Amino acid sequence: MLREIRALRELGFDVRVASVRPADRAFEQLSPEEREEQSGTFYIKSARAAGAFSACGRMLFRSPLRFLRGLGCAVRLSRLRPGLLVRNLFYLAEAAIFCDWLGRLRLSRVHMHFTTTVGLLATRLMPLRTSATIHGSAEFVDPRGFYLAEKVAAFDLVCVISDYGRRQLQRVSHREQWGKLRVSRLGVDPSRFSPRPFRYNPAQFEILCVGRLALGKGQDVLISTLDQLRGAGHQVLLRLVGDGDQRAALERLTNVRGLESTVIFEGQQNVDRVRDCYQQADLFALASSAEGIPVVLMEAMAMEIPCVATDVMGVPELIRHEVDGLLVPAPDAGLFAGAITRLITDADLRLRLGKAGRLRVLDQYDLGKNTAAFAGILKEVPPLESSGPGC
Fold first, then answer.
1. What would the 3-class secondary structure string for 82-127 be?
2. In this structure, are 227 and 352 located in the same domain?
């Protein structure tokens, strides 16, 4: 998203950034670009409880009917389930803080990534023109819980990052809303993610995975895969970049399998350090059970790293099996071990798939070209004239 924002600014867009949460890393761990962006970003949660009460109070005083409309929307979305109601009331408070910030800057045009419920409630609190990018995969697994139908109805335009994503939104929305849906593919800068040196016969074959350490992301599958590969006599190392609530469980699994010296937990890293990890990799593996189209796969492919990934959701739109990489039908250690063994033992296949992967990115997932197309989509949203339909 940072790369998308910076590319839009280069195209002449005046982009102001608000984030619900603060940075996921300490300041010294951020890249120079991330540090620069952080200094100008408004963090909603930094307002804390006092700021939330003040924002809600101001909203209630200035526009009592709109605030009650937002409150009613939060209640209806909760379907009278106490847990959901509490969560939605927190979202309403965040929406009030966000709208307070928009009002101070006199902004009325909002594009959202991953904050769409806050954005939905914000449309009830003040007149806005809204668009959003829906990434998946969690939204598509639980469309009712993410209020996808309500968001498609409320927003002026909805982007998805894959044809699969558009089909999922069509499945949950009314046909008359389909004209709002646009496919806006993500991308990477091929000049920043350039080919790394190819190693024909590495003494230790290095497998890289970049992603949150979370259920469904498949790092446990890759650890089991590594165990099988080493049991078959292959000298392999697995490097896991990322952090999350499953780290302790994955470290325990590593210890149980006796793989402490061959599974490296890198933790959360900035883009420069991640690129260094790509430079060392002989193969990139992603064993997720659900995905949109991961940018990390695009980054690896741009660097001519052959990829093995699960054949799920939007991934086959990026990787064509046996053409741009290898797809495995399910997140299964045995299947991944078989695919990775092919690449360990066939350097020419690794080389061919790596080069084809970069060509695929240049053709379909180039950041500059895709951001220019996205800019054209954003220009389709008309100027603000009314506050739109109710929740």
1. HHHHHHHHHHHHHHHHHHHHHHHHCCCEEEEECCHHHHHHHHHHCC
2. yes
Would strands 109-113 and 129-134 be described as parallel, antiparallel, or unpaired?
parallel
Residue 198: inside a domain, yes or no?
A: no
The reported pLDDT for the residue numbered 391 is: 58
150: left (phi over 0), alpha (psi -120 to 50) or beta: alpha
Residues 314 and 166 in one domain: no
Q: Is the pLDDT at 389 greater than 80, yes or no? A: no
pTM, two decimals, is 0.87
Q: What is the pLDDT of residues 173-191, one digit of tens each?
A: 999 999 999 999 999 999 9
Residue 192 covered by a domain? no
- Euclidean distance between CA atoms 101 and 57, whole angstroms: 14
Reported in sequence order, the residue ranges of the chain that DSSP labels E, i.e. its strands, are 18-19, 42-43, 109-113, 129-134, 157-160, 181-183, 205-210, 236-241, 263-267, 283-286, 307-310, 326-328
Separation between Cα atoms, residue 344 and residue 282, nearest integer Å: 9
Q: In what order do the strands lie in the sheet containing 181-183?
A: 109-113, 129-134, 157-160, 181-183
319: containing domain = 205-365
List residues bridging with 347 in a β-sheet.
none
Radius of gyration of the chain (CA): 22
What is the rounded (10 degree) CA torsion for 157, 161, 166, 171? Answer: -100
Q: 32 with 181, same domain?
A: yes
Total number of domains in the chain: 2
| CATH number reported for the structural domain that contains residue 322 in this entry | 3.40.50.2000
Cis ω on the peptide bond leading into residue 137 (within 30° of 0)?
Answer: yes
93 lies in the same domain as 226: no
